[in-house]
Amino acid sequence: ERITQTVEITKHVVDIEEKGVKLRLTIVDTPGFGDAVNNTECWKPVADYIDQQFEQYFRDESGLNRKNIQDNRVHCCIYFISPFGHGLRPLDVEFMKALHQRVNIVPVLAKADTLTPAEVERMKNKIREEIDHYGIRIYQFPECDSDEDEEFKLQDQALK
């Protein structure tokens, strides 16, 4: 029997408190993404989930009682790219093209510690070229303020 495609969407909620600031962080995981033999439109459940969260938030904001609204929108997609191969797979390109209008995408080279520094740099450059070539918009870190200290500016530049 053929195994059907299973892109499950699981949510993990974590309450974080740092320096008196409370934050509820929701991690949305998609195990099974890209594992099927036929991955045609396998990103559809993820895109639909993101759209549903935005619609729910809009409905809540448009309602009369807006005191206790929970913001379950997806604000960022950390997209892990396989370190094995020669850049982006067609599935990666299609997924990011389908979602870059909906959510900030941060591409991350998965298992980068299994590569040499030269291989990591080569892979990152190849992935950046492909992202530019396909017109995929990814999250760009904002410029830091001019009054920040030099150490913070160097940290900011390293992250970019």
Describe the 3D structure.
- InterPro entries: G_SEPTIN_dom (IPR030379), P-loop_NTPase (IPR027417).
- Residues 1-160 form the Septin-type G domain.
- This is SEPT4 protein.
- GO terms for molecular function: GTP binding.
- This protein has 160 residues and is an alpha+beta fold.
- The chain has one domain: P-loop containing nucleotide triphosphate hydrolases (Rossmann fold).
- The protein is built from 4 helices and 4 strands, in the order ββαβαβαα.
- The protein has helices at residues 44-62, 90-99, 117-133, 150-159; strands spanning 10-18, 21-29, 76-81, 104-109.
- The strands form 2 sheets. The protein has a two-stranded antiparallel ribbon with strand order 1-2.
- The chain is globular and about 55 Å long.
Helix content: 25-40%
* Order of SSEs: EEHEHEHH
Q: What's the alpha carbon Rg, rounded to whole Å?
A: 19 Å
CATH superfamily: P-loop containing nucleotide triphosphate hydrolases
Main-sheet strand order equals 1-2
What is the strand tally? Answer: 4
CATH architectural type: 3-Layer(aba) Sandwich
CATH fold annotation = Rossmann fold
- Main sheet, how many strands, which sense, barrel? 2 strands, antiparallel
Overall tally of domains: 1
Low-confidence stretches: none
Category from helices, strands and their pairing: alpha+beta
Q: How many H/I helical runs?
A: 4
> What is the percentage of strand-forming residues?
15-25%
Overall pLDDT = 84
Shape: globular
Please identify the top-level CATH class: Alpha Beta
Distance between the termini: 47 Å
